[in-house]
Amino acid sequence: MILTPPLERYVLHWGEMGTRWGVNRSQAQIHALLYLAGKPITAEEIAETLSIARSNVSTSLKELQGWGLIKLTHVLGDRRDHFEALTDVWEMFLIIVEERKKREIDPTLTTLRQCVMEASDDRQTPDEAKARMAEMLKFMESLSGWYGEVRKLPRGTLMGLMRLGGKIARLVGKLR
Description:
This protein is mainly α. The chain has helices spanning about 5-20, 25-35, 45-50, 55-65, 90-120, 125-150, 155-165, 165-175; strands spanning about 40, 70-75, 80-85. The protein has 2 domains: about 5-85, Winged helix-like DNA-binding domain superfamily/Winged helix DNA-binding domain (Arc Repressor Mutant, subunit A, Orthogonal Bundle); about 90-165. Strands 1-3-2 form a 3-stranded antiparallel sheet. Helix 3 crosses helix 4 (about 55-65). It starts with a helix and ends with a helix. The mean pLDDT is about 95.
């Protein structure tokens, strides 16, 4: 695959954004390349196009498959594995949010619950610290619950809510 200047800029920027989101730069670049490719491509083609070591490509592909963002596919007449990315932006977004919740929010909730429980019986833990941990737990549980409710909404409703943006906040403010 040949990267035109706009495609190269996209892939490089996606890699930079990936590092800011806590994702490996190579993984983000590979995801961007597969998203833009328009056809399944091999690991060798990815390595050559992005000038990334083949071992790094293999590791990154496994991680992206683990997230559910890309899939392995086969091309008739070619015995090599090919890879392609999801192209539905909403599906990608929801997968990323769900995976981040599983990897970051859920373990945090578990730890917060343990800390609050342990601190409740601990006389050495200051009451102010106990209250702050309990407040954080309550917030994170509310956030997780809200996410669960929003996740159930149909895509059209989600898009409508997104387009409404600040109008919803003003409406809720008026209802108070």
